[in-house]
Design a protein that fits this description.
The structure holds three protein chains of three kinds. Chain A is α/β, with parallel strands linked by helices. Chain A has twelve helices and eleven strands. In chain A, α5 packs across α7. The radius of gyration of chain A is 24 Å and the shape is globular. Classes of the chains: A alpha/beta, B mainly alpha, C alpha/beta. At the A-B interface, loops of A face α1 of B.
């Protein structure tokens, strides 16, 4: 069984005198022990709201949460606030995008780390301080004993994010949720942080739910990738499969629209037209239809079901999936292997003839 | 092709719901949000009632508020007062005058003091703040120096306790209603000046100001056409909130005996001051004007807070 | 001659302190001696991480910040020495597109007012009707509906707002447009629309761009020549393809290896150079080569003492490193303690998978 199993999670914001906003309209995915799962999508796709719902961090008023999210057998969505607090920090931990605003500016780093150790692991005094220093050391903060006395503003962005990670992993959580952990950082610092996260997952067997808009980050880090659009998973696949054969027109379009560092120059990008505002409700049909090149009337007959049109385990929510790129590649490899085979048999025949 | 138009029609139908009204500027949108706010409506109703009373009060008052028509029934020295009754809805004051009529007529004075004082503070304060802010935005050493000098003067004004400042102004100008208005208004000047200058300074660093500069727009136009209009919202909100404080401060000055020397002319602050002597035996005489002041001030505060929310660009949906 | 030439441009911001009278206690060396040239009709990409001075340099070209020293020669005129009013008139020919499409538009102006303001400032068009005609033309060109005129910035999506920002620059018919992070505030799917639009406009109108961005992939895609900045100075400059194929400066190599590529095959099979430490403060830059405090290839001589100048390696490839050739041919190896060179993770993963399978 999966460590975390999210099933048809919905989050609706109900403001006074405003129209209800469905931020998440039925998201399902699993995270296994020691696995890195990516939630990818652009702004407004519901990826951050999903993470907040899982952590029980959404405001209580004006928000309706539906569906199930089973973490090790208990439903996180119906847990009492007290039990959720116990779980947070000890079994579940989260890293946010902006490390500066996630740290208390008037309290030294050391106090913020030892606080967590005291609450969840019962460590006090010298023992807690030692453990805190060890934690900072492990996340690659040089001179940890001195750093413990410093305030957040004295640390650089990368160091702050490391400190936050140290706090998140202080109690060896079983699931770590990282919401755009590197978006506010420079690329060279991003590379360091991603490397650190990879190490933590490898060494501790922590499961990592990685929330990001950056497909490049996903390609290097995640085992399983879920692509979100307008509050629903539209494609879910193993990382290599997804990048080799993006099948939902949105995922396919997204990959075609980003400039790649290693791509030959001069080729124009193939953008997706329109914007996130050009959408329809999932109950009416596919929310991506207004921006989709493959749109037909069938797209408007309710929410398209998740299917596996290509390979088992590669789920796609689309009635007109894209096959071209993958199929072409498959055909090419097939032709190649054919050629090898014929060449091989020909050689064998030659040999026979020679003998 | 029919299927193609079909497809487009069907999509248009589904996306049409998301269309919003087009071409509405920020002021229009703020007005729309203000109307939707319960707080603003309650505040506006309270203020509306107050203003109507202030205007028509003298005509609808059942009796002459200055005439001691029932002098023989009230003996403050022996703690004999007359409470609410059929002909006098709120009873009689300590000199045997109709309290209800006095309240109605007194509203006008109170409103007058609040509005004139706030207008004075707003106009002079915004002018000073505007000049200072514009000087800063226009840049240059001269601009900075102008700003430094102006702001030090404002700082000194801010450093004095407002009531003390008002009392000193009143002491110089002598005892009259005009004195109260000027005193309360002067106290507001540094508040408005600081606020507008601060807002202009913040807006001066905005990207669109840089963009206008890059476009080659003249500096004067940048300061007056871009920075100033975008800095007004907090000042307008402050103006509304200030009406509440002005009314309370005017009442306080009257209470301290710096107001209209003609005690016969009803004014809520004066009424409150006079009633306190008899608070033990006739507490209601103090409660009526106090309630009047509180409810009116609350009305302005509610409207001001609602305006703050309506004008806040961050709260825009 | 090049259309735009920068010679030793320096922008130093004074750090002031004091209660009543400010006095200068130091300087932030935001841009510290940059020389480069931009050819007409080309795109020059400036890339670097936050704090490298690329934005300040872009603003210095337009004199939106004061230039401490050096020349900005545009079409034969040194802008750095131009008096205020003349500089203002020159701005018609040098325009800018900003990073934050919402923040750079005045929220109280409608689109017509935003777009006609520059024309009014430069006396283009006899009356509002003539200007409106021109605005309509430009709106169509950047792909905005004609009914946008009476609407306000907050009524548009991020991508559309950036189109408005581009249109605002275009109505003045400039020669050069400086694009400061033109797409970094936009969603991935929208970025491509704006990049393509910029390229189309360049082709159609013969524009010259200076594109400033932190995203190396975007800069490489759009630029003919790319300059890499670190702590206020240019460390490497080369034609876009050359830079990617043969990065010669250690910082460029580290930067390139850090950019994630959306392709697992690539990600699994490349070496990463992880820099240690943080960017030094531009108020107190290190002596010698600015990068030597974090450089994996740092040598005991020269690096800490002599500041390297940009040297031409041929083919328009300039690099500011004392040891560029020796690093390239492998004579100098990266030291282990200064940085971590992570082997491609593919090998590791395979191991893990076989272990799991058995």
């Amino acid at each position: 069984m999966a460590l975390l199993s999210v099933d048809e999670l919905t989050v609706t914001f109900t403001g006074r005198g405003r129209r209800d906003v469905k931020a998440v309209s039925g998201v399902s995915f699993d995270v296994d022990q020691g696995q890195v799962v990516g939630l990818v999508g652009e702004s407004g796709c519901g990826k951050s709201v999903t993470s907040l719902a899982l952590m029980g961090l959404l405001p209580r008023r004006g928000v309706t949460v539906g569906g199930r999210a089973e973490f090790d057998g208990t439903d996180l969505l119906t847990l009492s606030p007290g039990r959720m607090r116990d779980l947070r920090g000890s079994q579940l931990a989260m890293i946010f995008q902006d490390p500066l605003s996630s740290l208390n500016p008037v309290v030294p780093i050391g106090v913020q780390v030892t606080e967590i150790l005291a609450r969840h692991r019962g460590l006090k005094g010298e023992a807690a301080r030692k453990e805190a220093a060890a934690l900072l050391d492990r996340v690659g903060i040089p001179d940890p004993t001195r750093r413990l006395k410093e305030y957040p503003h004295q640390l650089s962005g990368g160091m702050r994010q490391r400190a936050l990670i140290a706090m998140a992993v202080a109690c060896a959580p079983r699931l770590l949720i990282a919401d755009e952990p590197t978006t506010a950082l420079d690329v060279t610092i991003q590379a360091q942080i991603l490397e650190l996260l990879k190490e933590l997952v490898d060494q501790q067997g922590t499961a990592l739910l990685m929330i990001t808009h950056d497909l490049g980050v996903v390609a290097g880090l995640c085992d399983q990738v879920n692509v979100l659009y307008a509050g629903r998973v539209v494609e879910s696949a193993e990382r290599r499969e997804l990048f080799a054969a993006p099948t939902h027109p949105y995922a396919h379009g997204l990959l075609g629209s980003i400039p790649r560092l290693d791509a030959p120059r001069g080729e124009p990008l193939k953008p997706i037209r329109g914007s996130i505002n050009d959408t329809i409700a999932w109950t009416d049909g596919c929310a991506f239809a207004p921006r989709c090149d493959r749109y037909t009337l069938e797209c408007l007959q309710g929410t398209p079901a998740l299917g596996e049109p290509r390979t088992p385990g590669h789920q796609v929510r689309c009635v007109n999936p894209v096959f071209s790129r993958g199929v072409d590649e498959l055909r090419e490899t097939a032709l190649e292997s054919d050629a090898v085979e014929t060449a091989g048999t020909a050689a064998a025949a030659d040999k026979e003839a020679g003998a | 092709m029919s299927t193609k138009t079909d497809k487009i029609d069907r999509l248009a139908e589904l996306t049409a719901a998301a269309e919003t009204s087009a071409g509405a500027g920020l002021w229009v949108e703020a007005w729309r949000r203000l109307r939707a706010s319960k707080m603003a409506v309650i505040g506006a109703v309270v203020i509306g009632v107050f203003v109507v009373v202030a205007i028509v009060g003298p005509w609808v008052a059942p009796y002459d508020p200055t005439a001691q028509l029932w002098r023989g029934e009230v003996f403050p020295n022996q703690n004999v007062f007359v409470g609410p009754r059929g002909e006098n809805w709120l009873g009689l004051d300590h000199l045997g005058r109709d309290e209800f009529s006095r309240m109605l007529v007194g509203a006008r004075q109170t409103l007058l003091v609040g509005v004139v004082a706030t207008l004075l503070g707003f106009t002079v304060g915004a002018l000073i703040g505007g000049v200072s802010g514009a000087a800063l935005v226009l840049g240059g050493k001269v601009g900075q120096r102008i700003d430094t000098v102006v702001m030090r003067v404002i700082d000194i004004m801010l450093a004095l306790p407002s009531l003390l400042l008002a009392v000193s102004v009143a002491a110089v100008l002598g005892q009259s209603l005009t004195t109260v208005m000027i005193a309360v208004g002067v106290v507001q000047i540094p508040v408005f000046a600081r606020l507008l200058r601060g807002a202009m300074l913040a807006q001066g660093g905005a990207d669109y100001v840089l963009a206008a500069q890059a476009l080659g727009v003249r500096k004067r136009r940048i300061a007056l056409g871009h920075v100033l209009p975008n800095s007004l919202s907090p000042v307008i909100v402050q103006g509304t909130l200030s009406l509440a404080t002005a009314i309370i401060e005017a009442a306080a000055l009257s209470y301290l005996g710096l107001g209209n020397p003609d005690a016969a002319v009803p004014e809520w602050g004066v009424m409150l001051a006079q009633a306190q002597r008899f608070f033990d035996s006739a507490p209601m005489l103090a409660v009526y004007p106090a309630l009047g002041i509180i409810i009116t001030a609350l009305g302005f505060t509610l409207l001001g807070e609602a305006m703050r929310e309506a004008l806040d660009p961050k709260l825009r949906s | 001659m090049s259309l735009l030439e920068l010679n030793g441009v320096k922008v130093h911001f004074p750090v002031k302190k004091g209660v009543l009278f400010d006095r200068t206690v130091g300087h932030v060396y935001a841009v510290d001696g940059v020389s480069l040239s931009v050819e007409a009709g080309q795109t020059y990409g400036l890339v670097g991480e936050s704090g490298c001075g690329k934005t300040t340099l872009g603003r210095a070209i337009l004199r939106l910040v004061d230039i401490t020293d050096g020349e900005v020669v545009f079409d034969g005129t040194d802008l750095a020495k131009l008096p205020g009013e003349e500089m203002r008139r020159f701005r018609r020919r040098l325009q800018m597109v900003f990073q934050d499409p919402l923040g750079s538009l005045n929220p109280r102006q409608n689109i017509e007012s935003i777009l006609s303001e520059g024309m009014a400032a430069h006396g283009i068009g006899a009356d509002q009707e003539e200007r409106r005609e021109r605005i309509r033309e430009i709106l169509a060109r950047v792909g905005l509906p004609a009914n946008a005129l009476s609407r306000y910035p907050h009524e548009f999506s991020g991508g559309q707002r950036q189109r408005i920002g581009i249109a605002r620059a275009l109505v003045l018919e400039p020669d050069v447009i400086i694009c400061d992070e033109p797409v970094s505030a936009l969603d991935v799917s929208i970025q491509a629309q704006v990049i393509n639009l910029l390229e189309e406009l360049q082709e159609a109108m013969g524009l010259t761009y200076v594109v400033i961005a932190h995203d190396l992939a975007v800069v490489r895609h759009i630029s003919d020549v790319v300059g890499v900045m670190y702590l206020g100075s240019l460390v490497e400059e080369a034609p876009s393809d050359t830079l990617y194929a043969e990065p010669r400066h250690p910082y460029t190599r580290a930067l390139m290896s850090a950019v994630p590529v959306p392709d697992p095959e690539v990600e699994d099979n490349r070496e990463r150079i992880l820099l240690t430490g943080d960017l030094p403060s531009p108020a107190n830059p290190p002596a010698g080569c600015r990068f030597h405090t974090r450089c994996p290839w740092k040598q005991d001589t020269l690096c800490a003492t002599d500041r390297p100048e940009l040297r031409d390696l041929g083919g328009g490839h300039r690099v500011a490193c004392h040891w560029a050739e020796k690093i390239a041919d492998g004579t100098i190896r990266p030291s282990a303690n200064a940085a971590t060179v992570v082997p491609p993770p593919a090998a590791e993963r395979e191991e893990k998978e076989t272990a799991a399978a058995s």
